[in-house]
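Quick one: structure tokens for this chain, please?
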Amino acid sequence: MSDSKLDPGLIQAYRQTHCMAGNGLTLQVDHPNAALAQAQRQHGVACSAFITACNPFSQSLTADQNAARQADLATALAQRRLAFVHGIGQHPSNTWPGEASYLVFGLALADAKALGEQFCQNAIVWSAADGMPQLILLR
């Protein structure tokens, strides 16, 4: 983390955020999630990513701007023929508005990083086959 340009408080907030997917999963960074590992197996994949296009580099945008960015991300995922479900990233303190996100099945780490960078994100959450969500800093 010492190489990151991000404020340590922001990184801590990312670590505390709950990543809730439309299929009833709640992911937390560095907390094993057997249900996530099972969902990945059901989709026939060995990894997943929780990613958003909202609020690039943590700069608040309007609801319409964020919705357009999310639609662009959904198009990018569909073009890759990846299965995904809608989600929301929400800090438990509720001091920040939740961000629309997607839980994407089968998105390899390098591809997840590239999408996060394409959509100007500071970080993504990625999980290997073990279902352990990891915070992946992009800046």
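The first strand starts at residue 18 and ends at 21.
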